[in-house]
Amino acid sequence: MYGTDPKHFWIGTKSGARRVFSEEGVSHPLGVENLKTLDEMATAIAGMRRKRPTMARLVAKLNEGVSGAGNASVDLGGVPPPGDPGEHASILERLGAMKYESPKMTPERFTAKLAEYGGIIEELIAGRDFRSPSAQLRVTPLGEVEALSTHDQMLGGPSGQAYLGCRFPASPDYAAAIMHEALKVGRRLAREGVIGRFALDFVTVRNAGGEWEVYAIEINLRKGGTTHPFLTLQFLTDGTYDAETGVFLTPLGEPKCFIASDHVESPRYRAFTHHDLFDIVARHGLHFDQTRHKGVVFHMMNAIGENGLLGLTAVGNTHEEATAIYNKALKALDDESQSA
């Protein structure tokens, strides 16, 4: 099969990713992996605080969490100084009050999954101009590593860790930097025998000098939410992505960008059928124009009648144009659903 052998599953876990980052010299947040209990997490946090006493917020992650669903934020405000006799108990109290990204997660469920699958605790990176980009790569059956694309992820949820969509390509300010780090991981995965598509998630922040700092967060050994909109653009335009410049060009040399989401939803959208969607984009001039290579492409349309949910990819020549097309499509859907 053109895909990852199950023996490499460990690399795609949160603990496995941190191990690979450390061994390959890839910058990643301060943290501890392979934890099984909240008590172990509390001990790990105490050790982290000795290295970084000013650390205020952390994120706890289950090894097998997907799209942020296994994450929880931990606030260390009010915890006694490192080494204080009451520090461990106070940290445990904060862990008991952590905020889960998924509304379905409970303390009991998190603790049970932590004991079964393990997890990590790491510093929650924050700073000026915080971004959450990702890089997509592929290892061919011949063991060659190919750089495919970069995206800026659109995140939401209680603490901004849940994947909602993406913008392509990632900002040129750091696109080359994250791909440089991603290729280190790609070469390691090729040596391990991994084949097929995979992605790396990063966070980036500006430092005091105005430069972008890059931190690797996790490895996804699979196609992800950024795969299908990128393939949609690639198949519709026959263009290619240049990893060095961070630009996607059509055969005529025209740059292309897109904004895509899997979470275009409203209870009112349940009034629509597939035919309604096609009619709406045509009447509003939003349909994908094969000559200009601009417009809207829908996906996940089977969910609209029951859940009022669909996916949307809006393509333009610039980020601003793609965003304008995306917003125009949302307005058209909202206006039409209100009339319906």
What can be said about this structure in brief?
The chain is α+β, with helices and mostly antiparallel strands. The protein has nine helices and 16 strands.
Summarize the structure in words.
This protein has about 350 residues and is α+β, with helices and mostly antiparallel strands. The protein has a domain at about 30-125. Helices cover about 30% and strands about 30% of the residues. It has helices spanning about 15-25, 40-50, 85-95, 105-115, 175-190, 225-235, 275-285, 305, 320-340, and strands at about 30-35, 55-60, 70-75, 100, 120-125, 130, 135-140, 145-155, 160-170, 195-205, 210-220, 240, 245-250, 255-265, 295-300, 310-315. Strands 6, 7, 8, 9, 10, 11, 14, 15 and 16 form a nine-stranded antiparallel sheet that branches. A five-stranded antiparallel sheet has the order 1-5-2-3-4, sandwiched between helices. Strands 12-13 form a two-stranded antiparallel sheet. Strand 12 (about 240) and strand 13 (about 245-250) form a beta hairpin. Helix 2 packs across helix 3. The longest helix has 21 residues, at about 320-340. It is globular and about 70 Å long. The protein starts with 13 loop residues before the first helix and ends with a helix. The relative contact order is 0.12.
